[in-house]
């Protein structure tokens, strides 16, 4: 039974990863509906947060129905990270997570995110200061190392544990890999099985169905799994994975009718939570994947990606239901 901070899990926890411009309240609503055990906000810039940047403050909005939920912050300045941690605590999240894993150039090259893997003394200072001021348990998310020649994940895990974090998520790629190639779970399991590591280890990378989730628990022995990109446009992946973990069988992919209903609900929530047209614009990445693989869908997809009103999108969803609803789940494949 994994214990993450003061959260007890009697089953294998399946966690939604923090993702910029993805894990907003509307997407978290859908993932919670399909069974995500823990969710995280989009990652939040410590610099933006302490400057009262509107976009950063908006990301602090949490709702009781989505608990347990964590806030993730990133930055490379100890004072800013400490102040951001204090501000994040004011909304009473269940967890506060530190991002030491983002590989994006504009973040990593400034020394934040995965850039911190090249400056462990600074990582130590920031982590200690965040843990000290946080009233809620602090976790961290990182990668194997900066590149294949500098894999230092075991050293990082020991350091973070000593600083007081209560759980560590490891993405099984280096920063240099970005999201290419395959995640190396052997390094994750080495950390998990090391006698000095006592905190829960959560595995992340290439979990996209029930079989890969089961392998993470059974072969690599992690305490929890985190799903990121595989959930975009597929919030039902949490239902799929949890069913497999419990029963050992794959659920069929949702058929067209169910996808349309999911898309409608997600759109409504997006418009409810976002100002102006953002609720529509930010749904486009999900629409592409909700209906990916349907044959002869290109023209309809273009219309979905250029529609500028709720009414127009709703009419298109009606059209999809009427013209493609006869297709069964095994007539196409979502990837």
How would you sum up this structure, described in words?
- This protein has 335 residues and is α/β, with parallel strands linked by helices.
- The protein has 2 domains: 3-247, Aldolase class I (TIM Barrel, Alpha-Beta Barrel), CATH 3.20.20; 256-331, Orthogonal Bundle (Non-ribosomal Peptide Synthetase Peptidyl Carrier Protein, Chain A), CATH 1.10.1200.
- The protein contains 15 helices and 10 strands.
- It has helices spanning 25-33, 46-50, 54-58, 78-89, 105-108, 120-133, 153-163, 185-193, 210-218, 237-247, 256-273, 278-281, 284-290, 298-306, 310-324; strands at 3-4, 7-8, 14-16, 39-45, 69-74, 95-100, 138-143, 168-171, 201-204, 224-227.
- The strands form 2 sheets. The protein has an 8-stranded parallel β-sheet with strand order 3-10-9-8-7-6-5-4. The chain has a two-stranded antiparallel sheet with strand order 1-2.
- Helix 1 (25-33) packs antiparallel against helix 11.
- The longest helix has 18 residues, at 256-273.
Quick tags:
335 residues; alpha/beta; TIM Barrel; Non-ribosomal Peptide Synthetase Peptidyl Carrier Protein, Chain A; 2 domains; eight-stranded parallel beta sheet; two-stranded antiparallel sheet; 15 helices; 10 strands; 13% strand
Number of helices: 15
Mean pLDDT: 91
Query: Structural class of the secondary elements?
Result: alpha/beta
The top level CATH class name of the largest domain? Alpha Beta
What's the CATH H-level superfamily name of the largest domain?
Aldolase class I
- How much of the sequence is in beta strands? 5-15%
The radius of gyration computed from the alpha-carbon positions, rounded to a whole number of angstroms, is 20 Å
Assign the CATH architecture of the largest domain.
Alpha-Beta Barrel
* Largest sheet descriptor: 8 strands, parallel
Q: What overall geometry do the principal axes of the alpha carbons give?
A: globular
- Regions with pLDDT < 50 over 5+ consecutive residues? none
């Amino acid at each position: 039974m994994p214990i993450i901070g003061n959260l007890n899990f009697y089953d294998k926890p399946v966690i939604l990863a923090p993702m910029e411009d993805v894990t907003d309240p509307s997407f978290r609503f859908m993932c919670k509906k399909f069974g995500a055990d823990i969710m995280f906000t989009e990652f939040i810039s410590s610099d933006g947060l302490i400057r009262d940047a509107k976009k950063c403050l908006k990301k602090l909005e949490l709702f009781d129905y989505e608990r347990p939920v964590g806030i993730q912050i990133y930055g490379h300045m100890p004072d800013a990270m400490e102040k951001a941690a204090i501000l994040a605590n004011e909304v009473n999240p269940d967890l506060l997570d530190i991002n030491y894993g983002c590989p994006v150039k504009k973040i990593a090259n400034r020394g934040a995110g995965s850039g911190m893997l090249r400056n462990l003394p600074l990582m130590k200072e920031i982590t200690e200061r965040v843990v000290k001021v946080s009233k809620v348990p602090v976790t961290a998310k990182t990668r194997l190392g900066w590149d294949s020649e500098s894999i230092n994940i075991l050293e990082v895990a020991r350091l973070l544990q000593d600083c007081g974090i209560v759980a560590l998520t490891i993405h099984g790629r280096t920063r240099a890999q970005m999201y290419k190639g395959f995640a190396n779970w052997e390094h994750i399991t080495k950390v998990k099985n090391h006698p000095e590591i006592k905190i829960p280890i959560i595995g992340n990378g290439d979990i996209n169905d029930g079989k890969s989730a089961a392998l993470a628990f059974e072969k690599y022995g992690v305490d929890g799994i985190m799903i990121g990109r595989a959930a975009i446009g597929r919030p039902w992946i949490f239902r799929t994975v949890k069913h497999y973990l419990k029963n050992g069988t794959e659920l069929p992919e949702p058929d067209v009718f169910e996808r349309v209903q999911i898309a409608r609900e997600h759109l409504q929530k997006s418009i409810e939570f976002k100002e102006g047209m953002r609720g529509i614009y930010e749904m486009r990445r999900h629409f592409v994947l909700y209906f990916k693989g349907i044959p002869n869908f290109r023209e309809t997809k273009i219309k979905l990606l250029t529609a500028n009103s709720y009414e127009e999108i709703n009419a298109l969803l009606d059209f999809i239901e009427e013209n493609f609803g006869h297709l069964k789940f095994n007539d196409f494949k979502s990837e």
